[in-house]
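Many introductory courses stop at the sequence. We go one step further.
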Amino acid sequence: MLRIRRYLKPYMFMFVASVILLFIQANLDLSLPDYLSRIVNTGIQQSGVESPVAVAMRQETFDHLLLFLNDEDATAVQDAYTLVEPGTVEAGDYIDQYPYLESQAIYVRKDLTDDQIDALKGPMAQAFLAVSALEQAMADPEAAAQMGSGDSAFDLSRLPAGTDLFALISRLPEAQRAQIGETMNQRFEALGETMVEQTAVVAVKAEYEALGMDVGQLQNSYILRVGAIMLGVTLLSAAATITVGYLSAKIAAGTGRDLRSDVFRKVESFSSAEFDKFPTASLITRSTNDITQLQMVTMFMVRLVFYAPIMGIGGTIRAIGKGSSMWWTIAVAVLVLIGVISIVISVAMPRFKIVQKLIDRINLVARENLSGMMVIRAFNMQSFEEKRFDKANVDLTENTLFIARVTSVMMPVMMFILNVLSVVIIWVGAHQVADANMQVGDVMAFLQYAMQIVFSFLMLSMLFIILPRAQVSADRIADVLETEPIITDPKNPEKLNGSFTGKVEFRNVSFRYPGADTDILHDISFVARPGETTAFIGSTGSGKSTVVNLIPRFYDVTEGSILLDNIDIREVTQHDLREKIGYVPQKGILFSGTIESNLRYADEYASVEDLQTAVTIAQASNFVNSKPEGLMTEIAQGGTNVSGGQRQRLSIARALVKKPPIYIFDDTFSALDFKTDAALRRALRQSTQDSTILVVTQRVSTVKNAEQIIVLDQGRVVGKGTHDELMETCETYQEIALSQLSMEELSS
């Protein structure tokens, strides 16, 4: 993946924006269990009373609380509350909320910061518990007896019934009051901070009821408020999810588009040597299936590679905050998950590397079958080809199924781990609640955090599953992109414009194919001049097509040089070189579209008259004009809806539209009958009389009138001259000529 990371640079802004949104989304998702915990703990269990720092209380309650606070805490509490007397202007603002204010004074909490409230929670919770305990003791002698003990600082069991304990305590010396407060605080500390605050909230709720507050409305209001926040958080998270999904799709699609474009451009720059290295079927797979794999993994990476770790780490931190005594449950589950993922990846990884090669293989077999269908049917080899395709198909299927079976284990194993983890958390959490170490809402939040942690690992496991295959695809694509073509343009190219005539000269040219041990051409030298036809003839495999394929630089010479107007073709750009050449290959190749679009392949600005002229010279006017649509007749892919001779004539017409100074006909006339061949050559001679014409053929009749005939045998020039000269001096040419024509035909 690192080899093609540069393709992400144009989308870096969207990538950074996605990461920021994912961070926001993860934090929003992680906050939801906390809000659920608040609804259960505060909204349901505490009836909406959020804190032991009451928003209001009766004056007598306030005075009682001060009895159990040290001087520092008492001063802080007094500063936090304002006394509101009945009948005052201030009372009008609170009378509806606190009906008790109609006849009695109350204390109302000032606007405090969260930090100030947190600082008061502990002292006020303990004070409320002390006040509540004494009020219960005054109302119930049995409770007083249970609270007292003979060696306590203040033994309530010894006091007579009906004693006003608060009045009694207020008259005690300050040191004794402090001792009583310290003794009670020690008892409360044994309960734990959470339990103290929960119990104090019950006393605060009773105080609110005494003030005449609608506690039911308070509870509903709290639940609705927190629920509305949860809904807002969920909507924001959904918006972030949708936005990240859009951005990730854009990044993935854009990256895929750029990769396909660059791979296509790179392949266009390949010489025949590079095509020998990368088979056509493999290039098709790399341009389609491999890039699709990368698109998919890019989208998953943008959405998961940051989100899942944030959820996992954030969920762990928050879960420990809710229940530090249960951290081991998540740790065990995570270790098991990591072990399962590691095993699956180690087993599946080798098969991922094989799958892409098998896709290459099945594409190769399918392509050969489709292109060679007529030959297969002619030789009744359908059953053999079916077996060959079935072999490639079965191999791919077996590997794919193996990977699918291994990876399919992930989901049930993770769900099993999740369910076991849920049961363990509920079991342990229930004991923690029973021991007053946790609240019910905290257990529920811990369970949700545990699920988020497990699902984050599940998301990462999905990424680990598709990443190895994408890595293989990325390497295959990078291999194409990093391949430097053997044939390159010079840094300071020469120009072929101006007074270019089209003279072609081979100087001591030798050539061997890349990877071959021996040369296929040996010391070839000749000059092809403008206005003349230079023909190449020889037995099959003598190197005729190889010679002319060196001129457009489909390959580069191994030794020697090829010159156009005395300029080495390696000193000009490939574009400028090929602009001067009209090339017609052995096999006529047409593209899907119309006859006109195929002809305009040579010159998109050619006039209709030029197109018609080229068709006429190529002896294709009869069948073109016989079509109702004429030049607009549709051509199927590969030209399969026209005959071989028609394809060849249209290929010739396409080269003629270009009007280049050099024409190369590579065994172009082999698909034509002798009559059409003769007529075409006559028309060509008249229309291309100023051009350099190079013709590869095996027909002596085609080259009889050529100004120069070069006879090749096993890559060497064994004869050079006109037809008459070669009939006298070249034995190889004589053998070829006599095998095709009679002496009368040769002498005519």
